[in-house]
Design goal:
CATH topology: Rossmann fold
Number of helices: 5
Strand order of the largest sheet: 2-1-3-4-5
Largest sheet: 5 strands, parallel
Helix content: 40-55%
Radius of gyration: 13 Å
CATH architecture: 3-Layer(aba) Sandwich
Shape: globular
Order of helices and strands: EHEHEHEHEH
CATH superfamily: Response regulator
Strand content: 15-25%
Number of strands: 5
CATH class: Alpha Beta
């Protein structure tokens, strides 16, 4: 069973997406911001992280940059989710899969499978 870390400060997104991923057979670990997400990675050892862009404490770009700077986690697949994809820095948009909110279940599963395989 593959593990997905879902990092989002919106409880409704965490509950809904978490439930969909669990139905699809993934183990889901959650965090409410990038700082909590980084802490969860060490214990959960996820196969992929779904990370919201706009969050308090540490946003998704800051979390992604911290991951990429750490040799242990630099290759962890990360998908950014955001309602404002054009607000992301250009280097992030060019190098990281982005899922624009609102998204539907098929789009969510497609981007996850494109990163993890079927």
């Amino acid at each position: 069973m593959k593990t997905i870390l879902l990092v989002d400060d919106e409880l409704s997104i965490v509950e809904t997406v978490g439930e969909v991923l669990a139905w699809e057979g993934y183990r889901v670990v959650t965090a409410a911001n990038g700082k909590e997400g980084l802490a969860a990675i060490a214990s959960a050892r996820p196969d992929l992280a779904l990370v919201d862009f706009m969050m308090p404490v540490m946003d998704g770009v800051q979390m992604l940059r911290a991951l990429r700077a750490d040799p242990i986690y630099a290759s962890l697949p990360v998908v950014l989710i955001t309602a404002a994809p054009m607000a992301l820095p250009g280097d992030i948009r060019a190098s990281t899969p982005v899922l624009a909110k609102p998204f539907d279940v098929p789009a969510l599963l497609h981007v996850i499978r494109s990163q993890l395989g079927p």
